[in-house]
Request: fold
Amino acid sequence: MTHRDVPADDRPREAGDGAEAVALGIADAVERLTTLWSAAVQQSPLRLSMHQLRALHSLAAAPGVNLTALAERLGLGLSTASRLCDRLEAAGLLERTHHPFRRREVRLSLTARGQHVLDGVTRRRTAALAAALYGMSQADRAALNRGMQAFLAAERGSGPPGEQGPV
Reply:
């Protein structure tokens, strides 16, 4: 439940499709989506934490980054990121190699096993989400897709021209 201490009937609601009302509805959907996605991760042969999974995604997107760059991407302190990498390396999911020109710099990359584990999680997440989407009409799926694209654009600060968030 998104609102822990407030009974569902007593929640403050904004009428119609105002930002607050929509946010409440989306929060419930995101909570369910998080449950679906967590289940896909738990079905992995390895039990990965959300930080470990985010690290694998970051390394897949930017192979060869150094520890400092990975820590920044994940919003973690350097020592926390280092311990995270130690665990991923011990599990055979990450490898460290020396930079060819900067001897003190270490590059981080997924191993073939790390990519395989990440691909499996992605397949299970996609299947779980697709199963839910099959229960929607084509028009609703298209509307959801448009809405999600608009959300991503607005969150990045590049929303539709002429529209602004709260002042």
Q: What stands out?
A: The CA atoms of residues 154 and 161 lie 10 Å apart. The domain at 37-154 is CATH 1.10.10.10 (Arc Repressor Mutant, subunit A). Residues 19-42 form the longest helix (24 residues).
